[in-house]
Specification:
The chain has helices spanning 2-7, 12-21, 25-59. By secondary structure, it is mainly alpha-helical. The termini are far apart. The relative contact order is 0.12.
């Protein structure tokens, strides 16, 4: 879970609060899928932006 907390630091307070009430494995799983979704979005954005950067480099 340390990986997810470093990727998504603003969700740490929510996670610790749910852990304080009761250990919820579903919330744990949600954090993991959320982190995976964010990683996918970042990779997708890089994949979308990189052709324009290479195109500009090819022009200059």
């Amino acid at each position: 879970m340390s990986v997810v907390r470093t990727i998504n630091p603003h969700r740490q307070s929510v996670h610790s609060y749910s852990g304080y009430l009761f250990y919820n494995q579903e919330a744990d799983l949600m954090d993991q899928t959320n982190a995976i979704t964010w990683i996918g979005l970042v990779i997708g954005m890089i994949g979308a932006i990189s052709p324009t950067i290479f195109g500009l480099l090819a022009i200059f």
